[in-house]
């Protein structure tokens, strides 16, 4: 059961592999639903759009992480949950649990999303950090999140290196034709990081990917007096480490 709806109105020799080009140039801009207060899905585990503001309400669809929604109203259930009445297009609307989304205008959402980064795997940390950096332009937590973004990308690079080497063992590649390094640079495991704006370098001699370092440089450039600046500079100055086999 749900209670009264509250209406809300609008307010070594290395080959550089470019997987995206930074946060300002992600390939495709999301569609922005008209009206209401904009928010973005950050926790896809809770992002079930329902016909009614209740966990047992009929499912309309499940929303993906990064999806923009327009909040048109809210309701609080008897068990203490808040649901937002949201529109995702002119024709599609429903009710969404409030914890599924974050918004720059909602106090404390930057802290909540920052906390979500602590328990995620490499890709989830990258994806959620991207949402944070795109949403909370003036948050004091940006240096911390940038460091998380960079560290998660480097951890992912080590894992991708191991996966790609197992797949492209010498015996599996044709003796003639495309050069070996091009198979690595076309490895399909890179694709989802491409869509998150991550850039890797590939070292031909060691057959290792490494994070290119944009987030760390951004900390040093924009937040030189932050606690994270020294950590970021240390990562930029350290030689890349080969991933464990």
Poorly predicted runs: 1-27
Shape: globular
Structural class by secondary-structure content? alpha+beta
The succession of helices and strands, N to C, reads: EEEEEEEEEHHHHHEEHH
Percent range of helical residues: 25-40%
Number of strands: 11
Count of individual helical segments? 7
Descriptive terms for the model:
6-stranded antiparallel β-sheet, 245 residues, 3-stranded antiparallel β-sheet, alpha+beta, SH3 type barrels, globular, 32% helix
Question: How would you describe this structure to a colleague?
Answer:
The protein is an alpha+beta fold and 245 residues long. The chain folds into 2 domains: 2-11 and 31-102, SH3 type barrels, CATH 2.30.30.40; 109-237. It is 32% helix and 22% strand. It is built from 7 helices and 11 strands. The strands form 3 sheets. Strands 1, 3, 6, 7, 8 and 9 form a 6-stranded antiparallel β-sheet that branches. Residues 1-27 have low confidence and may be disordered.
